[in-house]
Amino acid sequence: MLDPVKLRVLRSVVETGSIRASSEALGYTPSAVSQHLTSLRRETGLELVERSGRGITVTAHARQLAAEAGPALDALSTLERTVKDLRSGRTGTLRLGYATSIAATWIPELARDVRQAYPDLGLELALRDCSCEDLAEAGMDIVVGESTMTVPPEDWEVHEILEEGYVALVGAGHSLAAHSTVLLKDLADEAWVTDDPLDSFWFDRIGAACRAAGFSPRVEINPNDFPTVLGFVATGDYVSVQPSVIGQNLRPDVTAIPLAPPAPRRRLRVQIRRPIARNPATQFIVQRIHAVAAKRAAEIPGVLHLVDGAAPPDRVPVAQVLPVVQVS
Length: 328
Description:
Blueprint: H1 4-16, H2 19-26, H3 30-44, E1 49-52, E2 55-58, H4 60-88, E3 92-98, H5 107-117, E4 121-127, H6 132-137, E5 142-145, E6 156-164, E7 166-171, E8 191-193, H7 201-212, E9 218-221, H8 226-234, E10 238-243, E11 254-258, E12 266-273, H9 280-299, E13 304-305
Parallel strand pairs: 3-4, 3-5, 8-9, 8-10
Antiparallel strand pairs: 1-2, 5-12, 6-12, 6-13, 7-10, 7-11
Helix pairs in contact: 1-2, 1-3, 1-4, 2-3, 5-9
């Protein structure tokens, strides 16, 4: 049986392309890394690295071995964490997946509160740019995000938590920056940047609203992360349309302007696997998420905190005639 320690060393060397860089990442000496590679070469009968000048070149065999060892090493790491939890007296682990749009503003507060209230609970967090259904299939116990299904799945308990509109992001020096609201059609002639995949249901919702306004958004930049979106918007040459909750705590050279009706809206939900729905820690997490949603609703115009799937009577907006996209 191949030694997992040696396989981890190999994977590190493949990732870094350097024995020295791998030794620094792993906390080993360079000679220890070389010894592990030599030992693994003897065990496998494969040449794993070749000398190249003063450095090394990783062979194709090494890359394939490291890639195929990855899932096994990850599974072993999960098992090792389970043993550590049991040894330390932890009462279990909850796996929580969450959407990109709430990553920076909701999840750090939630993780802090859960760890303070349940110090013996293992909390695993996973950021995914996907739907609730994708997160569920990834093995999460609790997921926070949007759903592509109108009918809740039978094996999940669902809590609607928030309904919101969208904002246009423009550079601080952009001609629209001083506006209190903006119509989608005002963005028709602008170059767009978005981190949503252009074939996703997230962007299709915005695209459909734009088409209803008489144009198709001209997306020129499509990075896979939000900070890059902000960087392009800050130049003043690009605009972006994003959910309202993202419009908080932006960099100072970017301005968020609420989209005036008619404009799309979306809902966020919490989905919980039914076997753990009555778990005290699970209920605490749902309560804290509702508390954060209520706070955001009080801070951001047009954002509604949902209780039992509906907004409290005193929070129903005047713009109830807005087309609400029911994707949750």
